[in-house]
Amino acid sequence: MTMRDEQAHEAASMYYLQGQTMEAIAKHFSISRSSVSRLLAYARETGLVTIRVAPAPGRHSTLAGRISDMFGITTHVTPVSSIHTEVNRLHNVALVAAQRLVDLMKPGTTLGIAWGNTTTEVTLCLPHVPFPGSSVVQLNGAATATESGVLYADALISRAAAAFRARTIHFPVPAFFDYASTKEAMWRERAIRRVLDTIASCDIALFGVGSLSAALPSHVYSGGFLAPGEIAKAQEDGVVGDVCTVLIRKDGSTDMELNSRASGPPTEILRKIPHRVCVVAGASKALPLLGALRAGVVTDLVLDDGAARALLDLAATKGSSARTMER
User: Fold this and answer.
1) DSSP structure class, residue 102
2) Is 160 exposed, middle or buried (0-12, 13-18, 19+ CB in 10 A)?
3) Does 185 fall in a domain?
4) Angstrom distance (rounded) from CA 310 to CA 306
5) Which domain range does residue 36 map to?
6) pLDDT in tens, 124-139
7) Is residue 39 part of a domain?
8) Per-residue pLDDT tens for 24-79?
9) How far is CA 36 from the centre of its chain?
10) What is the pTM of this model?
11) Can you list the alpha helix ranges (DSSP code H) found in 165-250?
12) Best CA proximity match to 104, nearest among 134, 60, 68, 138
């Protein structure tokens, strides 16, 4: 441990375990109160301190309880003030999701992450907690017709791996292939096959939902991964968003030509991963989230209260009788 680590550890012990005030700790170290605050923040960021909030009792009448009961999942709803911007909303949800992810991690865990605006923010919020023998694998390709996508995906995957001291496994393929036959040929290559096998054996998957109408544009639709004509055709086909670049309708179905060219794991593969953590910020993503829930690809959901209310309204008014697909 460095001198800063030792000071942060001692300050955190005094503050969280002994209940001492910041003023008392500042006097003990002969530093300012603001310096103590920075030491405590450093202790949280580096994993010297982890803070967990237990689920509230009597959850059945809460937003989280109603969603959990309706879809048979574990739900964490983050209250966010209406005065917050969409960026602040995402950050607050990401903080909770990052802690949920740390709770699920263990030594030797294989974590799969689908790139996107939401998962990027989650990785920025991860504390540094080592899990020996763990791996972080990229769930979907990131290249477009004009860009490799490597830097965008690499930064996200590498940041999560650094937080957990895990090895990284990248997936150097297009987000969407031009031809399904090209994807089929690529999927037979041994190097790609090893990545696909690792994805199929993940213990945890972390992903958001892409939306065609989100307040913060989903990277799949704003980053040139699909041509405007392809997006228009997908909308005509009832697509409301995507999970790991696999396009999805509001009823949870995914049977469409574009998905034969998508690089992300099909829903039948994703459903086999034991813990599937979906993170959503903003009511505009409620519709694709409903599709994801009906597809059965979510086991753990972290979202803000506005998205939670919008989801429950949609489930009650738009095809509420539709059955959740087999999990």
Assistant:
1) H
2) buried
3) yes
4) 6
5) 3-45
6) 999 889 999 999 999 9
7) yes
8) 999 999 999 999 999 998 888 888 887 766 555 545 568 999 999 999 999 999 98
9) 32
10) 0.82
11) 180-186, 190-200, 219-222, 228-236
12) 134
